[in-house]
């Protein structure tokens, strides 16, 4: 065993990464708590104990738990809805605790019941449309704060209505602070690197100093205000069954989003290091983090897109990073409470707007427009519904449309009549390639699995290709990846119908797993034709015994 | 123009077919009206004008509109539900009119909006499970009638409760008539042919004669009772918007079932004559028939499974058949009203039970058990839900499960590493066949389209197959029938990830339509590898320029 020297290199890497993440997390934790409509200190609380919980269970060193932009918007919408119907005196903080607790429970249940497969339901168009719509909504909710208005709201329609009816629609000094903050943040981002990552905290420090010198609060600038002394203590969320039922749908949606975002981000970063995530352990990590967020007086948490990217770049190597960040955050909360109280809210709003605007990416819209027009409309529709209706509606409609497009795609398969590419053993569409055909034999390729969605049309698809001289039909089965029960029924009926016309139905290139299935249905005994290893063998002169 | 001689042969064929169908339709029309909980004369009315409407619009000579077993059960359940909440004094006949009118309207709307594609949603397991459950339910509803009980009900639970609490749980003379009728019907069916088809009407004639001689009604046997004089006159269904809203879901379900059954039965019979149905015209024909059923005082109608089979065997050749049947049915209704009044209801119940029991077929259950265990459970589940819950629940659950199974099937594709079958240009799974591989090249076949359900796993699926020496990956694209936007994104990311590892990703055997799509996404410019016509060309020594 080597003698303990200074910190080993990976410790040093991890400590540096943790420092950088903390620089990012201090403004994020305050800003996202305010975005969620919660007191700022809930964001700080949610950045300490949950990070420890994930470090104990999770596997990704680049994921540090804390509040996130989209999560906070979802929390805001859920709380706004719940506050309207909850018993009088219920605080937003109590509801946030219930929401985090239920989100954690759903995640743990999902891990136990292997629900991580449900994550696959969110297609790229749905997810990108949703993220775009959420980013736009986040920007919209921050506009009144940036302008110095006293109004609020978590949806486009509330924000617009609130702003129009606001007692103070704008405030000139606040607007000036906003312009200065956005300019500095934007310059920081353009500079990139260390400067870029430190920019939010530097801008905050500048703003605090400026606000203290100029008595901004006295001149009508909204500030964060006094933070209670940090005391991480067990908190038990409100035990009202009606509240629990009320928050459950939002919690399920949050759980889905937290897992999708985390598995996508942490998964792709792990793959770059040729590592794998274990989805179930990740769900447990996320679930534990949210449970402990609830029990330590926080709000729903997730892995965080920007934090993970920064941690990856900073070469975060082990789960220690999360532990160090938790310690640094606790220290910051203790030391910085007094100065943070002076921070203008508009500065936090500016950091939110910059973060959200970096989520806007038109490239996928452009590519989808050219490559898959229907999916472009799904993407745009989900984005629009996210802004105009609600996140739940947008995601439900998006998932239903994705599934419907998939079903519809299988319903109307492309059928190609194929012939031999001369001089090869390769068979291709006779209309696209110069090919040779055998007289009396129709060779067909149906480009789809045989499924209930297309089974009803199989018979006429094939029989439409025959003429009076046809005595054999050979189906190239390489595009047929599955034959469900309806497909089997249709294929048997086709064999029977062709047999009645004096035509033999042969199969070629049936894949191994499919052939195993067909054997369980006694294909050889029921059908009248033969099965060939390759198209080329099926079309040898001696392949037809008649 | 030839001199008019006797009837031309096809006229004679059609007249004979019409006669046979009428023999079948007289007992059916009465029995199914009673099964639906409606006065018997509604069944007669529904067998006259609707047949004319279909003959004017439809295309299938073997389809003669009239009441059907499953339709009548659905009507019974819809009416029972509606009668419980309709304003007092609303008659079942008025509700049946509303139901038929709405069913017709939904069918016409479906034809206009091309909803016939929705029919594909009913997979074989769902449809067979549903038909099995419906047949069992029909048998169950007739049991009290067969036993001579005074109780009723349209679902297992109502029938059981009604029978247990019935004032008259059974009646010996009725039971005797039941046993005699079932025996004769069963012998007739075993005999088959002409005797079999005439059996129901012969049994009815016998039963009427016996009932008249022995004064069955006076001894407590339930009989059909006096039929009002047949008067086909315009009837306008009740104009109550609340009733219309109430019946709409049932009407939509009826429309779906009527179209599925009709397109399946008439479609497969047309195919046997190498003819095609035009689905939209058929929906129009069915819609018109139901509209006119409503306006002439009838009940919902459909093509009828047993009638179509009989008409096909009897060589029905033109739509005249329906017109002749309508005439014969009108004549029968005028002439036979008096004797039909004496017919014991148990005899009609016996014809229903025999017809329903012929719908029971265990063969698909056995095949599904061996071939596709999950689909067996769907079939059984839908059958059980049809009996125990309701038809709506059973079909909704069945369709959702079918779609979920399809999505799940695409989510977890089979991946095969492939090599050359020696002496051929054919490439197969190296674990199933004796094959040759090229050093440094991994040839893979992913047996599924690249879709959002599996896109997230594509990267790790492929990268798991690589080792340190790999410098090329060749994907055989013949099983890939589609690449949706999520799949494209994943494939581009895979290309990028492999490129970063110094590995080139090539594609082979990309199908024509798919290559066209990839070109819209600038595949050649974005990706680092090449596209080959065939696997064999991709694996030639000169295919790798490095």
TrEMBL record, chains A, B:
Chain ranges of the STAS domain: 431-542
Bilayer-spanning residue ranges: 15-35, 42-64, 92-111, 118-140, 160-187, 199-231, 251-271, 321-340, 347-365, 377-407
InterPro entries, per the entry: SLC26A/SulP_dom, SLC26A/SulP_fam, STAS_dom, STAS_dom_sf
Compartments where found: Membrane
Domain of life of the organism encoding this protein: Bacteria
One term under GO cellular component: membrane
One biological process term in Gene Ontology: transmembrane transport
Recorded topology in the membrane: Multi-pass membrane protein
Gene3D superfamilies: STAS domain
CDD domains (UniProt xref): STAS_SulP_like_sulfate_transporter (cd07042)
Name under which the protein is recorded: STAS domain-containing protein
Organism: Ideonella alba
């Amino acid at each position: 065993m080597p003698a303990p020297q200074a910190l080993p290199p990976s410790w040093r890497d991890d400590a540096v990464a943790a420092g950088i993440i903390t620089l990012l997390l201090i403004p994020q934790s305050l800003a996202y708590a305010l975005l969620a409509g919660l007191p700022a200190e809930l964001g700080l609380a949610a950045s300490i104990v949950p990070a420890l919980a994930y470090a104990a269970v999770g596997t990704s060193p680049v994921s540090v738990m804390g509040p996130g932009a989209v999560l906070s918007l979802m929390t805001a919408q859920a709380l706004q809805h719940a506050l309207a119907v909850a018993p009088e005196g219920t605080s937003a903080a109590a509801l946030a605790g219930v929401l985090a607790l239920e989100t954690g429970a759903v995640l743990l249940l999902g891990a136990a019941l292997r629900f991580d497969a449900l994550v696959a339901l969110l297609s790229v168009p749905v997810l990108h449309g949703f993220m775009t719509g959420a980013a736009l909504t986040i920007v919209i909710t921050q506009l009144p704060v940036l302008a110095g208005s006293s109004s609020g709201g978590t949806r486009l329609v509330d924000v617009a209505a609130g702003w129009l009816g606001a007692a103070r629609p704008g405030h000139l000094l606040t607007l000036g602070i906003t312009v200065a903050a956005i300019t500095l943040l934007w310059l920081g981002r353009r500079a990139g690197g260390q400067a870029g990552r430190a920019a939010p905290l530097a801008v905050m420090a500048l703003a605090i100093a400026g606000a203290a010198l100029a008595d901004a609060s006295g001149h009508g600038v909204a500030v964060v205000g006094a933070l209670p002394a940090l005391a991480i203590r067990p908190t038990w969320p409100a035990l009202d069954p009606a509240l629990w039922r009320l928050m459950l749908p939002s919690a399920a949606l949050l759980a889905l989003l937290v897992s999708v975002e985390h598995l996508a981000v942490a998964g792709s970063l792990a793959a770059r290091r040729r590592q794998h995530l274990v989805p179930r352990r990740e769900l447990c990590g996320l679930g534990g983090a949210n449970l402990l967020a609830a029990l330590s007086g926080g709000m729903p948490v997730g892995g965080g897109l920007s934090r993970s990217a920064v941690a990856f770049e900073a070469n975060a190597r082990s789960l220690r990073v999360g532990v160090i960040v938790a310690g640094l955050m606790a220290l910051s909360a203790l030391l910085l409470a007094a100065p943070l109280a002076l921070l203008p809210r508009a500065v936090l709003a500016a950091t939110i707007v910059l973060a959200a605007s970096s989520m806007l990416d038109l490239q996928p819209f452009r590519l989808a427009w050219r490559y898959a027009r229907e999916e472009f409309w799904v993407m745009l529709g989900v984005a629009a519904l996210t802004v105009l209706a609600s996140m739940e509606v947008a995601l439900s409609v998006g998932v239903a449309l994705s599934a419907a497009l998939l079903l519809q795609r299988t319903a109307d398969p492309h059928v190609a009549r194929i012939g031999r590419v001369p001089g090869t053993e390769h068979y291709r569409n006779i209309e696209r390639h110069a090919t040779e055909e055998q007289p009396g034999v129709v060779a067909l390729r149906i480009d789809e699995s045989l499924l209930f969605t297309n089974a009803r049309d199989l018979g006429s698809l094939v029989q439409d290709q025959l003429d009076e001289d046809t005595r054999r039909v050979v189906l190239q089965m390489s595009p047929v990846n599955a034959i469900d029960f309806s497909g089997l029924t249709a294929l048997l009926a086709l064999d029977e119908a062709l047999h009645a016309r004096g035509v033999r139905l042969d199969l070629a290139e049936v894949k191994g797993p499919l052939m195993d299935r067909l054997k369980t249905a006694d294909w050889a005994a029921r059908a009248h034709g033969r099965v060939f290893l390759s198209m080329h063998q099926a079309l040898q002169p001696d392949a037809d015994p008649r």
